[in-house]
Every structure is written in C-alpha cells, then in structure tokens.
Inverse folding.
C-alpha cells in the first residue's frame, strides 16, 4: 500500500496507524534519509539533502525485497513527479501544482487528515483489505 501526500499532511501518522492496525511493516523514506544522515554523524542540517536520491534507492530496494518475499508493506513518502520536483520539495520550495502523480489501474482512496480521518479509519482499513 502506498501512502503519499504533501509535506505535513499527516501521511506518516496515517501510514504508522495502518501498519499497526493491519499488522504489516511500514517503510518511511524520510526515516531512511535521516538514518543515512545520522550514520555519517553529520551535524549539518543542510547536508541531509545529499541523501535524497540514495534514500529513495534504499527505500525502493527494501520495499521490493519485502514484496518479493510475499510480505505486505505500507510505503510512505512524498512521492514526486520528477527529480526536479523532488529537489525543490527537499529544499522546501513546494511546487504544489506539479506534486500530483497519477496512478492508473490501481485502486486509490483519498483520505483527508485535516481533522482526524475522512473517511474514518475503519473505512480506510476495509478499503485496503478488500483492494489487495
């Protein structure tokens, strides 16, 4: 299952909640990027941007490894339409108009996280269970 959205939209909280409720692992691209930054013991917050591309590569590789092992997984990230958009997002220059990625042929559900979850969490989890 893919959870994506704009920065600060609640996607990490939703992904973790779904992982807990459905008893499946959650992969978070920002956690991978932060882990890379911490591993090299950098204290420079600007240096974290150099890990964007390697973090996506590791993130996708981990997702593929789990899926190939027939393990369901929640993957969560601010997926971008292209690398330029990703760089601008990482630099906190939010080009909202270019942010949407169209997924055709894949069941999708828009979840509003502004005040709780709309639709409610039980509807979201039922959608996931019946769409698999």
């Amino acid at each position: 299952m893919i959870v994506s959205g704009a920065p600060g939209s609640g996607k990490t909280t939703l992904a973790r909640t779904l992982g807990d409720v459905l008893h499946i692992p959650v992969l978070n691209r920002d956690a991978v990027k932060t882990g890379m930054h911490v591993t090299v013991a950098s204290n420079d917050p600007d240096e974290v941007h150099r890990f964007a591309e390697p973090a996506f590569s590791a993130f996708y590789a981990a997702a593929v490894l789990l899926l190939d092992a027939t393990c369901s997984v929640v993957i969560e990230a601010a997926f971008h339409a292209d690398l330029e958009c990703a760089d601008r997002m990482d630099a906190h220059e939010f080009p909202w108009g270019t942010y949407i990625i169209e997924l055709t042929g894949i069941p999708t559900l828009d979840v509003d996280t502004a005040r709780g979850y709309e639709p409610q969490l039980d509807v979201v989890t039922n959608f996931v269970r019946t769409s698999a």
The mean pLDDT is 78. The CA atoms of residues 105 and 131 lie 12 Å apart. The two ends are 9 Å apart (CA to CA). The longest strand covers residues 26-28.
